[in-house]
Amino acid sequence: MKYPEIQDKVRKEIFDVVGTSRLPSMSDKPNMPYTQAVIHEVQRHSNMIPILGSHLNVEDTTVLGKKVPAGSFLIAQIWSVMKNDKVFEDGEKFNPDRYLLSDRKTFNKTVLERTIPFSVGKRNCVGEGLARMELFLIFSALIQKYEFVPASKVDLTPVWGAVLTTNPYRCKLFPDKNIHIHFDDLAKKYGPCFTLWTPLPSVVITDYEYLKDAFVTQGEAFIQRSNRPPETLLQPHPNTGVLASSGENWRLQRRTSLKILRDFGLGRNLMEEQVMRSVHEMLTQLEGIADKKNVDMFWPIQLCVGNVINESLFGYHYKYEDAERFKTFVKVVDRHLKTAQGRIPLLIAAFPWLRHVPIIGELGYHSIKRNIEQYQTFIDEEVASQVKEYDGESEPDNFVHAYMKQMKQSGNQGLDMPNLCASVLDFWLAGMETTSNSLRWHLAYMMKYPEIQDKVRKEIFDVVGTSRLPSMSDKPNMPYTQAVIHEVQRHSNMVPMLGTHKSVEDIVVKGQNIPSGTNVFAQIWSILRNDSVFEESYKFKPERYLQKDGKTMDKAVLEKTIPFSIGKRNCVGEGLARMELFLIFSALIQKYEFVPNASVDLAPEWGAVLTTKPYTKYPKGPFPLPFIGNIHQFPPDHVQLWFDEMAKVYGPCFTVWIPFPAIVLVDYEHVKEAFVTLGDTFTYRAHRSPETLLPVHDHTGILASDGDHWRLQRRTSLKILRDFGLGRNLMEEQVIRSVQEMLVQVENITDKKNVDMFWPIQLCVGNVINETLFGFHYKYEDSEKFKTFVRVVDKHLRHLQGKMPLLVSAFPWMRHLPIIGDYGYHNIKNNISSYQTFIEEEVASQLKKYDGVSEPENFVHAYMQQMSQTGNPGLDVTNLCASVLDFWLAGMETTSNSLRWHLAYMMKYPEIQDRVRKEILENVGTSRLPTMADKPNLPYTQAVIHEVQRCSNMLPFLGSHQCVEDTLIKGKHVPAGTLVFAQIWSVMKNDPVFKDANSFNPDRYLQSDGKTFDKAVLEKTIPFSIGKRNCVGEGLARMELFLIFSALIQKYEFVATSNIDLSPEWGVVLTSKPYTCQLIPQQ
């Protein structure tokens, strides 16, 4: 790698002597003098065993006149021999030629004699013969099969030891991405038809004439597929469908599919009308966008193209406002295109047994397989739905019906359900992803070259006008528009390599022998870039497709523009794709001028399909390392402080890699834009552990679910809470009962000089939520079961912190590793299972008591009634248990912790405690407890509650939100699928509305009259979050905080027994440090 020219020279000698069809053998060695010379020179120059093992002389002797007494140790430093001997001229230089005489074949015996890496004499290396054989065979095989390119600078200084080893290095057998460029470079060195070992021998063709000879002239010889993963993973059954099948079954499936498409009007008006309907729907959707200054065209284009193929396959369109299922499928496809790239899938294609090796199998096989299974399920469900609807006799409405009819009429056993599902999957993938990506490329080029966009629009207006959309009959009259479409396809070059073809017999392509069974890759990227017919090919120049009259197409240029491939296995949907590109692109340019919001970067995003880059990348953030991202930079605790520091460097919206990209928002305006203005875009959860461990079943309950299912659970739960009096007297009476029980318990404490308020507060809050959920209170003297549950919850919150859960979240297979799996997954899961059991037992107990008809007494009863009355399958016992668990955790732990913070602040600032008590006594007195009716008359008490919540800031991060589509937050691009964290800790610490934010100052919430609230300050105090996923129990929590806190301050003065430290204990919830207090009853 340090001397690539020598590597090339060795490879050339190997190719000349051995070729590529077999590995070098020892019989080749005499014919490979330069390779031998390189091996000798590496051994001399690396000089890796500087000192031989010690020798002990057995008698007095003389060595070249020097006396050596008996019993002396002799140490031979061969390092000096092979560096300094005068026979090695310029011994510091790496020069294999020193070993060869002038004829370049005969060895220089003098130089060879002094090259002694295995020592000399009676105690030379006993395994020298084997070692020399290994060095020759292994080294020559590696150089024959691969070019080795350093991933970074190669340092030849050795690492000291008994054996001098190389400094660690990494090399590239293939580049990490943009492999097509690497292939293009290899073609310049080895010609347009060369062999790569991947590690199977594969032939790469990068020239049009070679490709035409192979796939057109000798097309029958190259119609087979590789039948290796990841291609075979696309099919649940081998050799099915159109894309990955071979032989007679491929011919049958292709012939049947083309017949059905033609019957549905491909090339005639019927199919055109279908595309036009989809275009109309898209334009209506665009017209309805209020803010046209900041539009992401991803989903409008994706749905327009997707609906064409969906109507063809299944007979219906997705509505733009109800397309969640479609969007989920598209995300799965996108993930597949990303996971299927890279070197590891190539290794598994060559050695299928590697799928069973940890890490390699996960990255190169199982992750791809799991992803594919998701969209196979999607397709199977759609096909099954259509099969149920079709009687087999009626006129077919869609592809599935028509295929079913062909199955029945032909009786051909090759037409069956596995082939139908596989063919539908093929059309979905090939018919949607490439066309939608191509259209996004078209718009990107039009924004990059606005003068060309204007010229296309002028042609459309001249030919079509504005009163109707362009149609296929207009196409012959719009040569410049056609030329632009051809040039975008050529220049974007988005499918750089066609699917593999396998030769079925020994064949010769332009004089190059290709043995039977060889995989052949056609790199059309090189053809569309390098062919001499494309003058100045790097330029975007639509005029190259037109002759001088500006109307007639240049057939020579057109012939070599082959984005759909050529030959017998060219794209079966080419006709439909060309129709869609023309009709959708021309309609968009007719109706709108497209202007970029930022610089348009036409360098592609690498993948199986080269896609356009977003107009901006992820927001800037700290530089991530491979594999671990920024996790190594996270402090062991108080990560919110580190994020706050990062925001000072990168701004209030930045990216951290954990190790997948996650965007952190740290100011109110960004959080509001994301979760309120763009609320529907950020309603999804991460669906990664440890969040997914909380419910027994994934995607259940409220906290960790999303989509329609989350809406159903949230809506049902809020209805039940309102029915139980949330916001009315019923719920208030329940809270006051719990307060009275707590005050009785506190009054009975004998020694009020040293009181720990942990359990009185915990039971008071816990009994409110327990009565709501299950209809009963725990008694203070009989609450061991409750206390056990609280300890389990506390342990859970501690297990969630740290870096291990982040690693398992990013790489689920790590749960199987020792230590990492324990701390990042199993400890959390085992702990969660104990309180899942607690909840399930309580729910089961309540289910037994309820008849389903009577007036519900608690949440469990009410949920059961909703299940019975609505019949909605999304309301079931599994979701009931998950929702109850969510309310238990969120409704108890946060409120009880907040109340402990309230008392800590009151003891730290006794003058504020006195002021709160004075307000309560003046407005409520001492004969009754404060009620919600008193709240408007207690503005200072409310201000203190707000300020404690702001200063304690006990939930630094909100639960993760996942972006469901590409969007912009304050001009920062957020790609679909990105996790977004809102750090409200920073919002409530740093927003300029909070003057002198580090001071505890409740008066900031009140205007100068001491009664009216400052709305600007209140708006940015968001301890319960904001937007569609704000805390569902916020109303109950605010009621509890007011009623419990005001009752405690009314009845007692709280005096610290030691200094109160307001610095928090780190965890998912920031808790106050443990304290005790003296309680002074107030008369």
From TrEMBL:
Which Pfam family, just one, is annotated for this protein? p450
Asked whether the keyword Heme is assigned, the reply is: yes
InterPro entries, per the entry: Cyt_P450 (IPR001128), Cyt_P450_CS (IPR017972), Cyt_P450_E_grp-I (IPR002401), Cyt_P450_sf (IPR036396)
Give the matching PROSITE patterns.
CYTOCHROME_P450
Query: Which residues are listed for heme binding in this entry?
Result: C571
Q: Which UniProt keywords apply?
A: Heme, Iron, Metal-binding, Monooxygenase, Oxidoreductase
Cofactor entry? heme
Cell wall biogenesis/degradation recorded as keyword? no
| GO MF, one annotated term | heme binding
Q: Which family does it belong to?
A: Belongs to the cytochrome P450 family.
Q: Which PANTHER family match?
A: CYTOCHROME P450 FAMILY (PTHR24284)
Stated name of the protein: Uncharacterized protein
